Amino acid sequence: MSQRFILDPAVENDFPNFVTHLECSYTGEILPANQLHGLSPAGKPILVRYDLKALSNAVTKEELAKRPGGFWRYREFLPVRETKNIVSLGEVMTPLIPLRKLAGKGGELIVKDEGRLPTGSFKARGLALAVAMAKELGITRLAMPTNGNAGAAMAAYATHAGIETTIFCPDDTPEVNVSEIEYQGGKVYRVNGLINDCGKIVGEGKEPTGWFDCSTLKEPYRIEGKKTMGLELAEQLGWEVPDVIFYPTGGGTGLIGMWKAFEELEAIGWIGSKRPKMIAVQSTGCAPIVKAYEEGAEHAPLWENAFTHASGIRVPIAVGDFLILRAVRESGGFAIAVTDEAIDNAQAEAARVEGVLLCPEGAATYAAYKQSLVDGRIKSTDRAVLYNCATGLKYPMPPIARMLDKNQPIDYSKI
Amino acid sequence: MSQRFILDPAVENDFPNFVTHLECSYTGEILPANQLHGLSPAGKPILVRYDLKALSNAVTKEELAKRPGGFWRYREFLPVRETKNIVSLGEVMTPLIPLRKLAGKGGELIVKDEGRLPTGSFKARGLALAVAMAKELGITRLAMPTNGNAGAAMAAYATHAGIETTIFCPDDTPEVNVSEIEYQGGKVYRVNGLINDCGKIVGEGKEPTGWFDCSTLKEPYRIEGKKTMGLELAEQLGWEVPDVIFYPTGGGTGLIGMWKAFEELEAIGWIGSKRPKMIAVQSTGCAPIVKAYEEGAEHAPLWENAFTHASGIRVPIAVGDFLILRAVRESGGFAIAVTDEAIDNAQAEAARVEGVLLCPEGAATYAAYKQSLVDGRIKSTDRAVLYNCATGLKYPMPPIARMLDKNQPIDYSKI
């Protein structure tokens, strides 16, 4: 069979690589590839650029279709040069699940369930790439702040690759995330603060410890991993984009990455100029991007006293704020905030009506979909995609107390 | 593109169906298809039989290779007649993850990670089929005993299909399982007993309530769903079987199902006569199959005072005992018991060394692999497959207490 289902770096052929250079996302300054980079000299995220013409001659949609699922199938679109540096924990093409009972009249509502990736979240995409590139560039110690899922993904991939990790998370991070980081070989600290406080500890520790800082958008490659969300979605929809994408927005890497994916796909002629409306979803308790969007601002300052139990989107300040806002505006989309109550209700409704368990951040996108239909900002006939960024199983659900005594006669009329 | 990634029963063409009849697995008595069946008149599990010659003329390996991942790709091998009865929650082809650091010298150790299926366990396979067939046969109320994951899968698929479910589980079933059943639209009761006590409640309630009993092997279709584990594994390995399969054995449906898959694949000429050694893995606290295997018995009586924290294999008596034992013996395999301590150690080792989080039952298979290498019952050069039957995220991990105070100076030399 031509399909290989075990990704074996030891026997895999090297793929051609099309990276030409890196580039500051703010100033456009050109930076050399094959070197360590954090933020650009201007203190902004760095983007990877490819020779897209050569890339388009090297791979076809038909060839891609024959490859096993999982984001490593997009090798030509990714920066890893040597196949031996690929790190794989069994990636899958995350499924599209239509919610037919909950869709707007005449439209389509589709969940892209990122919870099926290794470690149960979309963070696997970015961190697999960051870890593979760390391996390629000879890095042996990584550090990162996390709200939970990113830390788990980094620990698992780094452990698999033989790289050491140190991770800092807010003290109220869900227990399962803290435990899985450590259990999977990372070293984890709880901090009495939010993710930006944790980020500060990583930043200040870089020099004394020799850590490489893997924070969101502070190295160039997590965004390339998240880009595969856009490549994969377009492929799954037959190289078309949907009308709207609802994306739970913390650091925003995925939204920025998908936007980059669509740009690259259009450049090689695989999709047309149509773009989905990119909708950044936040919580009313932490909505810096929504505020900046509504004020017409380019940047989103620190949101004071951030709170929401959807911890993945509790990100008071994002280094890629201008990139998120740019993609949202260029796409004709918008930024929208939903309450924690709306998140809870949306989560319960999707589970009880469709049997689909969303994580709180994924539920936020469904809440935003409903709100946007009411607002009239999207049409009921739209084909809308919701990103469920993690498995709902990591989060507490309402406990059940109903008991039966096997030693007593059972009144079945009451069951 | 020819690949469709959204399984849409409404627009999908019907596939040809090759079911000829059903058959008692013990007496061989022939039973009609397209009717409701529980156990056979002899009180034994019922198997579905196909016109394999016609089937082999209707589909090729090459055609299969073009279909989207997920077990519905094996439609010709499955009993559902009308496509509109298919129930899908986004099935994926579960990945094979090589554990290169833990494999025996010169051999291969591969985890098949069933935790990526809807509701996070391999139970999705059997229950998707049971629910689809219930829909096809006009059943509106299902009931089942569960140790957790089967109940979650049944609730999710039945809710998606608009079917009512009532589920009974031991009172110490993990909280996440109990909650997710109810959250996903099932009605769940805790019972002060084990899964066989719960099964009794279902059995006695059938008449007064009108429930259809979906217990393991007490209806004919869950085994057809589990059969896809064998079809999928063979396809992933290029239509070859591995040398050994370690399978965590409670009710044993998957082991029986895979054995049936290999038989059907050989009958249509897709694989040869080679079979993997089928190894039934149990816990030393609940090992009825191991005891019967060692005693040369055909059946495995109730195991008294069963205990193990790997609750999925805490099954004191299995209605398919003789089918499990038959497959194990015919394959040249064996049944093996591991201690809870060995399970814990195996789980921690896989996580810390490979970054792969196994569930306790999956960890039992890795413990059994190690024990079998020491015993000499398998060879270090074997290609061995471990079934990780559920996501490890559903189970508690050791908690972490390490704290940092953001308001104090940090001594990075101690981090």
Automatic annotation (TrEMBL), chains A, B:
SUPFAM superfamilies: Tryptophan synthase beta subunit-like PLP-dependent enzymes (SSF53686). Its EC number is 4.2.3.1. Residues 87-389 form the Tryptophan synthase beta chain-like PALP domain. Its cofactor is pyridoxal 5'-phosphate. It comes from the Bacteria. GO terms for molecular function: threonine synthase activity. It is an enzyme of class 4 (lyase). It holds the Pfam family PALP. InterPro entries: Ser/Thr_Dehydratase, Ser/Thr_deHydtase_PyrdxlP-BS, TrpB-like_PALP, TrpB-like_PALP_sf. Keywords: Lyase, Pyridoxal phosphate. The keyword Lyase applies. NCBIfam families: PRK08197.1 (NF006050). This is Threonine synthase.
